[in-house]
Design the sequence.
């Protein structure tokens, strides 16, 4: 698809076209992609939803230094009094001129002391903090205006979050292709066997790094895979296709199989039977037609998900 045609295509159709091209390139002996065209199509895709929704930058609390404020109030007061004393020097009354001269000398001495304080390290640091705060506040206001403008143009798109996730996933896969991650082709099965001898901490770390490189925009929790490993699996499989990012843990003392994923937002699945043929199906199919033979466990903080997984596995 050319860029000109892409601009006239709906978001779903363009996303489908990009996905199909990436999948063809990933296949064994797949067709090479024009990476420049691919990047341009991804940019067009994101433009259709207004790009990424702007976010407000964090603004630290306004720096507080009561001594500093008091010092500058004193300096302003001294400046006014010095000016008044200077004006008194022009008086026709000699006594008043002498009094003003002595008073002016005292005021200037006091003002010199405030200069010394203003040059101290603590005051200079405070002034630097005030300058930083002012700069961040200006950036905050600028970004707030940008958010208002973005909302006025694109905020009514109810599908934004879904479309944003689709665009992010496509870009991550495209960048993975450009890095050459697909150079080594695998047999396209939903699971790839990993020997039990590879079930160690270093292997888990390597797989986590692979996932982070492929999906840099996602957040991961290695604790999930560490816990599954501590349950003592005899075999581990790494998921592909629909279950990329999932790891299947098979145990000797239970027929149940654990499917775990370190990515935030993905639940754990426990298969009570026929896990290999059932794992060829999509998550949607599993949840709609096979709930009788699978359990799903969410990793919420308010639930003891580790205990629920162990009980579901009957370990």
Sequence:
């Amino acid at each position: 698809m050319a860029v000109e045609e892409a601009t006239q295509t709906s978001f779903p159709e363009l996303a489908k076209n990009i996905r199909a091209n990436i999948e063809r390139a990933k296949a064994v002996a797949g067709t090479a992609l024009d990476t420049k065209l691919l990047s341009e199509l991804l940019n067009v895709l994101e433009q259709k939803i207004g790009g990424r929704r702007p976010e407000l930058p964090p603004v630290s609390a306004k720096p507080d230094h009561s001594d500093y404020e008091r010092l500058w109030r004193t300096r302003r007061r001294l400046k006014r009094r010095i000016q008044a004393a200077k004006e008194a020097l022009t008086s026709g009354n000699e006594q008043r001129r002498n009094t003003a001269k002595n008073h002016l000398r005292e005021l200037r001495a006091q003002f010199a002391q405030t200069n010394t304080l203003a040059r101290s390290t603590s005051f200079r640091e405070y002034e630097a903090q005030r300058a930083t705060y002012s700069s961040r506040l200006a950036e905050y206001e600028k970004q707030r205006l940008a958010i208002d403008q973005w909302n006025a143009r694109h905020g009514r798109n109810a599908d934004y979050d879904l479309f944003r996730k689709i665009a992010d996933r496509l870009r991550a896969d495209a960048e993975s292709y450009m890095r050459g991650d697909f150079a080594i082709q695998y047999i396209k099965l939903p699971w790839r066997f990993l020997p039990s001898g590879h079930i160690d901490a270093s292997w888990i770390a390597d797989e986590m790094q692979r996932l982070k490189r492929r999906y840099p925009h996602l957040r991961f929790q290695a604790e999930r895979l560490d816990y599954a490993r501590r349950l003592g699996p005899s075999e581990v499989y790494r998921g592909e296709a629909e279950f990329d990012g999932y790891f299947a843990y098979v145990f000797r003392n239970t027929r149940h199989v654990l499917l775990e994923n370190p990515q935030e937002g993905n639940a754990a699945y426990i298969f009570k039977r026929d896990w290999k043929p059932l794992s060829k199906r999509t998550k949607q199919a599993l949840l709609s037609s096979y709930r009788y033979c699978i359990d799903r466990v969410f990793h919420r903080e308010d639930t003891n998900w580790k205990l629920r997984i162990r009980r579901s596995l009957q370990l």
In short: Residues 183-189, 193-200 have pLDDT under 50 and may be disordered. The chain is about 55% helix and 10% strand.
